[in-house]
Amino acid sequence: MTRTGNSSSSAPKTAPYDRIAVIGSGAWGTALANVAAVAGRQVRIYGRNRETVDAINNVHQNTTYLPDVPLAPSLSATTQMSQALTGADAVIMVVPSGAVRKVAAEVNNFIPPGVPVAVCTKGIEPGSGLLMSQVAHEELGHVPVGTISGPTFARETALGHPTAATVAFEFSHQDRLDPYASPAARMALSMSTGSFKTYISDDLIGVEIGGAVKNVIAIGCGMMTGAGFAENTRAALITRGIYEMKVLAEALGGRRETVTGLAGAGDLTLTCSSQTSRNMSLGVQLGQGRRRADCFDGRAVVVEGEANARSIVDLARRVNVSMPICETVDAILHDGAELNEAFAALWTRPIEGEPRTLDISLRNPARPSLSNLNGE
Ligand SMILES: NC(=O)C1=CN([C@@H]2O[C@H](COP(=O)(O)OP(=O)(O)OC[C@H]3O[C@@H](n4cnc5c(N)ncnc54)[C@H](O)[C@@H]3O)[C@@H](O)[C@H]2O)C=CC1
Ligand SMILES: O=C(CO)COP(=O)(O)O
């Protein structure tokens, strides 16, 4: 899209969406709802948990998922999905990946015609290999479906720390003729505040692949960190992780450059750098030798990389793309592969060209040896 600015009186105008329904009252749904409310929108959250909904309405806090974060007093919440969706002119859906199809089907019962939906879940559906927007689209029919994605820890976003994210929708023919009136531009404007900076993209595939794959790589970074490896190792995984995102995005019709943006490299950097990330944290705990059932002190926590590693690897195989880091993480998580052995095998794969254009592959003479590491 050409950037022409929007400042002169003759420049095309973009109208924000006035009334936004947020479906899902977890950490990220609440944070996005708060952004929209701070941006001046009328926002209603649907949540299935009565206690959470009451807390948002009565004490302006999500005491379950974002304790001690003050929310905009204008935010309201309901346990009735129909109430949240009535009169909405845009919808933001934020539930875990395993619930997207079911919740989208419920949304379809109440959503006004033509209203755009941003599905802000990160994952790939098992079996179908569909992106979350595609799953929602199958249930919702002919409404524009996109996403908002980037390096965005919910708590930091809700506290107003400067944060940037990409708003992506596929562009119709009409959107290309008038990008200022596109759902992506209108949603980006609707969600812009002094601390939440939005960018616009028409590459929904690239954006969603970045968001889904980074979680698996973050588990891998966590595993290596927990097992005692250091910064060199983490940087290698991040960089080669970006490469895995690129090849998968491209094979599915997305663009490589999207993956170097906020929703790819940006989000990967965030989640591979901090145990605030549930994915990184799970990896660290497993790398330290904890049993899965004991991680997070036994609490049920949404870890999308764990839920989606297999579906990502399956999708990559289907489009003939090699993603060795994701395959390694998946094998450890779901096939019982031994962590040190699996990473040692990753490190002794054939020697290849780093630019994709250099078509070379050498048998690697090194013997897998990472398991000999004893720490400093
Ligand atoms: N927390 C974060 O910092 C960010 C999360 N995300 C993504 O957002 C998605 C949701 O994550 P969180 O909000 O963090 O999870 P969360 O665990 O904080 O909340 C999940 C919410 O979904 C609701 N839910 C689960 N199943 C449901 C169903 N069948 N029907 C209705 N509601 C249902 C739960 O009641 C809960 O309110 C994930 O895909 C995650 O990757 C994306 C960016 C940032
Ligand atoms: O996606 C996120 C930040 O952009 C949140 O990461 P986790 O799900 O790993 O906590």
TrEMBL record:
Q: Which residues form the active site?
A: K214
GO MF entries: glycerol-3-phosphate dehydrogenase [NAD(P)+] activity; NAD binding
Report residues binding NADPH. Answer: W28, R48, Y65, K122, A154, R278, V302, E304
Which PROSITE patterns is this protein grouped with?
Answer: NAD_G3PDH
Q: Which GO terms describe its biological process?
A: carbohydrate metabolic process; glycerol-3-phosphate biosynthetic process; glycerol-3-phosphate catabolic process; glycerophospholipid metabolic process; phospholipid biosynthetic process
Could you tell me which pathway this protein works in?
Membrane lipid metabolism; glycerophospholipid metabolism
EC number(s) recorded for this UniProt protein: 1.1.1.94
List where this protein forms a coiled coil: none
Main subcellular localisation: cytoplasm
What's this chain's function?
Answer: Catalyzes the reduction of the glycolytic intermediate dihydroxyacetone phosphate (DHAP) to sn-glycerol 3-phosphate (G3P), the key precursor for phospholipid synthesis.
* PANTHER family linked: GLYCEROL-3-PHOSPHATE DEHYDROGENASE, GLYCEROL-3-PHOSPHATE DEHYDROGENASE [NAD(+)] 2, CHLOROPLASTIC
Entry similarity comment: Belongs to the NAD-dependent glycerol-3-phosphate dehydrogenase family.
Protein name in UniProt? Glycerol-3-phosphate dehydrogenase [NAD(P)+]
The organism's lineage is: Bacteria, Pseudomonadati, Pseudomonadota, Alphaproteobacteria, Rhodobacterales
